[in-house]
Specification:
This protein has 144 residues and is mainly α. The chain contains 9 helices and no strands.
Length: 144
């Protein structure tokens, strides 16, 4: 919805379906991908066979895999933003190798919307959603 140019419902369906083949192939990281090929199309065909909505699921997974729509490109960016959120949490904890990976994740982003969100993620504090440092609650945990 922040992008304003894509079908938000289709984007959500793509985001939900994109990792389904990994239930069969495993989630290959970038080192694995240098040596191993996962046949995600075959995995998608096998796992959806016999489902009444198999055509729709296979089409969504293929669209994501092939990046044949603006929604698929944005779904790829969302997947990378999720990785960036994990890296930011590690960065804020002092994990130096996370700093090595961050530029590569940023280079994978293709939409202006994702790049703007990435800037906000990196500028912020990964714990701010739950840890209000200015609150007295942390002194006694709400006990008068």
């Amino acid at each position: 919805r922040l992008d304003g140019t894509v079908d938000a419902d289709k984007m959500l369906r793509l985001a939900l379906a994109h990792d389904l083949p990994e239930a069969r192939t495993g989630d290959l990281n970038y080192v694995n991908q240098k040596y191993v090929f996962a046949d995600e199309e075959r995995a998608a065909d096998d796992m959806t066979r016999g489902l009444p909505f198999s055509d729709e699921l296979r089409e969504l997974m293929a669209e994501y895999r092939d990046e044949t729509s603006p929604e698929a490109v944005l779904a790829h960016d969302a997947d990378q933003l999720e990785m960036l959120l994990e890296l930011k949490e590690k960065l804020d904890s002092g994990c130096q190798p996370a700093d090595d990976w961050t530029p590569f994740v940023l280079r994978r982003l293709r939409t202006g919307t994702a790049k703007t969100l990435a800037e906000k993620i990196l500028e912020g504090d990964s714990a701010s959603w739950w840890f209000d440092r200015d609150s007295e609650w942390w002194v006694r945990g709400g006990k008068g």
